[in-house]
Design goal:
This protein is α+β, with helices and mostly antiparallel strands. The protein has 6 helices and 4 strands. It has helices at about 10-20, 35-45, 50-55, 60-65, 75-80, 105-115, and strands at about 1-5, 25-30, 90-95, 95-100. A hairpin with a 2-residue loop joins strand 3 (about 90-95) and strand 4 (about 95-100). About 20% of the residues are buried.
């Protein structure tokens, strides 16, 4: 399976998508096609953490004052399902490998994996 979860209004997602050949990838724009519980659980199975999938850069993170709260794995899962901006983007699935977010290290790993 080759799939990319992204946000079309995100300039960073656009930049990363331009760097890779999208041939054979299924693209899912998470604002117009929200992720399902099953899809999020598949991501969790590969990453072993909902927290790793969670973006603290979302404007709602500050607006909801989540920084002052102690969140557990189920909290992260629920927040991602309720608000698409809480998913760290992009998430790229290639077979049994997951690449989460846009850090330089992660993008380099993705690019070298694709070849």
């Amino acid at each position: 399976m080759k799939k990319i979860y992204y946000l079309k209004t995100c300039d960073t997602c656009k930049r990363i998508l331009k760097q890779i050949s999208l041939e054979g990838f299924e693209l899912q724009e998470i604002k117009t096609q929200p992720i399902t519980v099953k899809q999020l659980e598949e991501m969790h199975d590969l990453s072993n953490s909902y927290e790793r999938l969670f973006s603290r850069r979302s404007k709602k993170y500050a607006a909801m004052d989540l920084k002052s709260q102690t969140l557990n794995e189920q909290d992260y899962k629920q927040l991602i399902l309720e608000e698409y901006t809480f998913l760290k983007r992009p998430v790229v699935l290639i077979d049994n490998t997951i690449f989460i977010g846009n850090s330089k290290k992660n993008v380099e790993a993705l690019l070298s994996h694709i070849g």
